[in-house]
Design a protein that fits this description.
globular
Length: 144
């Protein structure tokens, strides 16, 4: 049975002037949070060190869209992509949300920020983001 890999990046509005604080309780507005989805990733099948992932070696990477069937049992697959904060998300807190089956370790600029177990995980990408900021995201996934 092939497993499906799902990776996406979600921008979540955590704090804004639209939130109302009352006696320590924060009430979020009901409208949906803004988000962006990364639908294409640079992919490498096989184990690499984080230094090899960060190196400028385009010959070992191919482009892949989301929801591609998984590879062999216990295989390792790396994903990487650069993301630039758009003007519309300036001054917002940005959360990186990953949905991957079965698990993944997520890095930003080569530093581990969280592990996704049981399909999803999230971590802070930026507090009060600046338009034009660039982030390099790397995801190491293992088909357990």
């Amino acid at each position: 049975m092939n497993k499906i890999l799902k990776l996406f990046w979600v921008i979540v509005l955590l704090v804004s002037n639209q939130m109302i604080a009352q006696k320590g309780v924060i009430t979020q507005p009901l409208e949906p949070h803004p988000f962006l989805e990364i639908s294409e990733w640079n992919v490498h099948e096989g184990n690499l060190s984080i230094e090899e992932v960060l190196a400028d070696n385009p010959s070992i990477w191919k482009t892949e869209k989301l929801n591609v069937p998984f590879w062999e049992k216990n295989g390792i697959k790396w994903f990487k992509q650069d993301v630039v904060i758009p003007d519309s998300l300036a001054k917002l807190d940005v959360i990186l949300y990953i949905h991957v089956d079965p698990s993944a370790t997520v890095f930003v600029e080569g530093k581990e920020i969280f592990t996704s177990n049981g399909y999803s995980g999230k971590g802070v990408l930026s507090l009060s983001a600046k338009a034009g900021e660039k982030y390099s995201i790397q995801v190491k996934s293992k088909n357990g």
